[in-house]
Amino acid sequence: MLDEKVLLYLGSLEYKQDQTAILEMEKFAKQTGVPIMEKMGFDFVRQILKLRKPKMILEIGSAIGYSAIRMALEAPNSMIYTIEKDIERYNIAVNNIKNFKLENQITIINADALNKNQIIEDVNQFDLIFIDAAKGKNKEFFELYEEKLAPNGIIITDNVLFKGIVASPENATKRIKPMINKIREYNEWLKNNPNYDTAIYPIGDGVALSIRKG
Questions:
Q1: Per the structure, how many domains does the chain have?
Q2: What span, in angstroms and rounded, lies between the C-alpha atoms of 173 and 209?
């Protein structure tokens, strides 16, 4: 998406939290192939957290707890609810959250995010919803949880450009082509959704920022 030299330069300027454990999570994710948000993508999210100061955050797709933990560290006055379907990743995330002593700030739920969960139902509304789960299900996640979004709340969706392949679907392999088509449909739906102002940024793996109107 961006020239490699530009990416290297931006990476050298990247804001770094002074947490060795974060680097360990990044190393683990790389070694095991667990998808986590790219560093520059999270740097964008970090700025949104600073500007918006959300009190209630919902994350769809915890993985190993990387994004939830980093959001908690950046927004210490927030409460974060995060949902993870995979039991192995859920257990790793639980341990990571404990290592950071963030159990009182982060509530992690082992469930399929496409099924409404009572814990989430009991929360009145969220100021920010972060979608980072099965990419072909983005629209379903959005529509299922937007009723919980506060007026003028925001929804962030990661991986909406998927390594740039979304812009060149002819380069998609047969295996991922259905997912790429789903992401393209989702992006078009977002941009044309009259209830939101949406911008898509070529940061990290592509980040969509949707602000609820009114």
A1: 1
A2: 28
